Amino acid sequence: MRDAELICVNCPKGCRVAVHLEGGKIIEIEGYSCKEGLSYAEQEITRPMRILTSTVRIDGAVNRVLPGLLPRARFRWIFGERRWVRLKDLE
Fold first, then answer.
1. Which residues contact 83 (CB under 8 A, 6 or more apart)?
2. Does residue 82 have a pLDDT over 60?
3. From CA 75, how far away is CA 50, in angstroms rounded?
4. Phi and psi (nearest 5°) for 22?
């Protein structure tokens, strides 16, 4: 059994959330004080996300760039290759 300790960032309370894992699966989550804290802990353990302060160009769109919420596992790709990525406006 493995334990992970997180500090929830969804509100100013900053609850200390304990996540108990067994075989890579969440067994129990303790210490959160709201539903958002529970959701945050589940997501942070299963698929951590971060706000990336970068943009992707969109060809032909009114708003020419798009910020993104990306999986942490994709950061290396985004920082290395993103300058070549372009999206097309589908409207």
1. none
2. no
3. 9
4. -140, 120
